[in-house]
Amino acid sequence: MRSFGVGLLSYHIERNRTAEGISLRTLVLFGMASTFRLLSACTAMRQQDTTFLCYVEALSLAGALLAIYLILVPLKYTYDVKYDKFGIVFLVVPCFVVALFFPTFREQR
Q1: Nearest CA among 5, 39, 36, 41 for reference residue 22
Q2: How far apart, in whole angstroms, are the C-alpha atoms of residue 34 and residue 32?
């Protein structure tokens, strides 16, 4: 679903040729989350089920990067940064603190 949604968003941006109403900061966070999920899925490639997950996460990351590229390069004149008020710090800092106190360890077989 995640890959389909971000692909649909990229298609919508390209078709309408506008980036109005889309938060670049949220897309950057989605790209970061997709990157970390992809790294996590691909480092656990020992299991058969993770191959599909690795492909899905790669598609999600590609869609997010495409949307970010479309907003920053060809459609930069339609993106208005003053309306993008999403506070990245309020999301990233608590996640970092929680990750420090509750790290996940995988058992090596």
Answers
A1: 5
A2: 5
| Alpha carbon distance 27, 51 (integer Å) | 25
pLDDT digits (tens, 9 = 90+) for 1-41: 778 888 899 889 989 999 888 899 989 989 988 898 888 77
pTM: 0.79
39: nearest Cα among 60, 67, 22: 60
Collect all residues with Cβ–Cβ distance below 8 Å to 35 and sequence separation of at least 6. Answer: 61
Is the distance from CB of 22 to CB of 9 less than 8 angstroms?
yes
Identify the DSSP state of 107: P
Cβ atoms of 3 and 56 within 8 Å: the answer is yes
User: Are 18 and 78 in contact, with CB atoms under 8 Å apart?
Assistant: yes
Contact 9, 70 (CB under 8 A): no
